[in-house]
């Protein structure tokens, strides 16, 4: 299947599906009226936001109800059958979109956590997803309308055409970000995910949904787990929809070489039959920022809390920090420090848009680990270095930092302080590789320098795919 192809068989054999659908009970007049009202309201709001013009331009909206015949309920998921129009590319995308409306309207949609971050943009030839646009504003105006990742993620239908369009949009956003990306508190800092999609869902359930919560992820979204495609798709989609509310850094596994060994490449071959999705994502990985700098207000006191309580204005904290010039900064990255890097400006001057090199400062940022021994040491990983407390203290002092937050290492409690609380390791993949038995954690940093670790256990286990494990276990 090429990148430009649109699948026409996503729920089994199409002819069998048609046969089943034609035996279904038609919609009642009342149900059809409710469906029409939801759809009309959606289109009207879409026109107001300027995102539905092409739907009307090609007459799709006016053809819908002439072809509407019946409603099928299958495991809580409804499908609208619209005659032979289903065989076209437009019909395919319409089914996914419109059936979600029916699901929510009649309260039968399975309760998943994530809003579909797309509104399809129709053309006369095919449904090309040019970008993923949230319909959240429309949804809340309608009161009950929420579109979920039901078909795109939870049924494994992350299509290549969607991946390509999503990554192109994400690339435009990421190329404008710095190698040391500034991030304002409050923010929730997260460690490795490693393809454990259901545990990522648990993370959002516990930490809060984006954009209600600001997030900073420190890399390693793929490999090891069974759902790397779904995991990285969700995070990139959130980045496209809420670019100021989520920051995604590069880890050592966001690499062409590493993903060919530890699972992501094989997963893409298994799910798509070719390496196109793998290539699209690994090309995007080159644009991920390498590090982030979290600014935390440490002043304001009672006056700060009073103003926030009295005026309920988010800018209060920012204004106070600006006036009092009291900021503490947390340096966030995947791995660790480098003997070639003394200041943050050294990092800012990198050309990061490349494959992770085998050695050098960029490699060190993604591969190095803190160590109990002082000074620099040779890393047993074969890449990067180990660095002692004297190194981290000097780096923090030189760059006016209070803390280095990093990921990259399994820690059984989900987080681990080191170097007399100058360095903290955060790991957000519980029961790593589905067998390590570790807790996971996230770090909440508020406006006033308060650090709160939230630990969590794995999400309830689903049936895992039939995968022959051939990936090596390095450094579990």
From TrEMBL:
It comes from the Eukaryota. InterPro entries: Calcineurin-like_PHP, Metallo-depent_PP-like, PPA2-like, Ser/Thr-sp_prot-phosphatase. The chain crosses the membrane at residues 287-311. Its EC number is 3.1.3.16. It catalyses: O-phospho-L-threonyl-[protein] + H2O = L-threonyl-[protein] + phosphate. One of its GO terms (molecular function) is metal ion binding. SUPFAM superfamilies: Metallo-dependent phosphatases. Residues 249-254 form the Serine/threonine specific protein phosphatases domain. It is an enzyme of class 3 (hydrolase). Keywords: Hydrolase, Manganese, Membrane, Metal-binding, Transmembrane, Transmembrane helix. SMART domains: PP2Ac. Belongs to the PPP phosphatase family. This is Serine/threonine-protein phosphatase.
């Amino acid at each position: 299947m090429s990148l430009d192809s649109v699948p026409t068989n996503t729920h089994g054999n199409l002819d069998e599906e048609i046969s089943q659908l034609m035996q279904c009970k038609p919609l009642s007049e009342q149900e059809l009226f409710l469906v029409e009202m939801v759809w009309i309201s959606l289109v009207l709001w879409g026109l107001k936001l300027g995102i539905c013009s092409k739907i009307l331009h090609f007459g799709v909206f006016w053809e819908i109800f002439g072809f509407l015949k019946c409603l099928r309920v299958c495991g809580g998921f409804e499908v609208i059958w619209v005659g032979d129009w289903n065989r076209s590319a437009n019909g395919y995308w319409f089914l996914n979109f419109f059936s979600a409306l029916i699901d929510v309207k009649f309260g039968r949609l399975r309760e998943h956590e994530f809003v579909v971050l797309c509104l399809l943009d129709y053309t006369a030839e095919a449904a090309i997803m040019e970008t993923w646009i949230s319909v959240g504003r429309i949804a809340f105006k309608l009161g009950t309308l929420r579109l979920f990742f039901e078909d795109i993620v939870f049924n494994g239908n992350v299509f290549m055409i969607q991946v390509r369009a999503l990554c192109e949009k994400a690339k435009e956003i990421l190329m404008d970000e710095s190698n040391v990306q500034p991030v304002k508190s409050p923010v929730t800092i997260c460690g490795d995910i490693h393809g454990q999609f259901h545990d990522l869902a648990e993370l959002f359930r516990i930490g809060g949904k984006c954009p209600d919560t600001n997030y900073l992820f420190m890399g390693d979204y793929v490999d090891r787990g069974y759902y790397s495609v779904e995991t990285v798709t969700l995070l990139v989609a959130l980045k496209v929809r809420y670019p100021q509310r989520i920051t995604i850094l590069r880890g050592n596994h966001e690499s062409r070489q590493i993903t060919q060994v530890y699972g992501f490449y094989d997963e893409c071959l298994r799910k798509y039959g070719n390496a196109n999705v793998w290539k699209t994502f690994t090309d995007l990985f080159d644009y991920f920022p390498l590090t982030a700098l979290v600014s935390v207000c440490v002043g304001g006191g009672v006056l700060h809390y009073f103003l926030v309580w009295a005026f309920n204005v988010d800018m209060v904290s920012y204004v106070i920090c600006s006036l009092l010039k009291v900021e503490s900064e947390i340096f966030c990255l995947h791995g660790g420090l480098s003997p070639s890097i003394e200041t943050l400006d050294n990092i800012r001057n990198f050309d990061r848009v490349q494959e992770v090199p085998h050695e050098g400062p960029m490699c060190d940022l993604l591969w190095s680990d803190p160590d109990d021994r002082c000074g620099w040491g040779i890393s047993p990983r074969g890449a990067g270095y180990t660095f002692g407390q004297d190194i981290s203290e000097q780096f923090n002092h030189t760059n006016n930092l209070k803390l280095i937050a990093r990921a990259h290492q399994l820690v059984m409690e989900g987080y681990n302080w080191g170097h007399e609380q100058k360095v903290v390791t955060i790991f957000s993949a519980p029961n790593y590789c589905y067998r390590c038995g570790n807790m996971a954690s996230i770090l909440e940093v508020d406006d006033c320098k308060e650090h709160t670790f939230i630990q969590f256990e794995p999400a309830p286990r689903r049936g895992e795919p039939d995968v022959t494990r051939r990936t090596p276990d390095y450094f579990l």
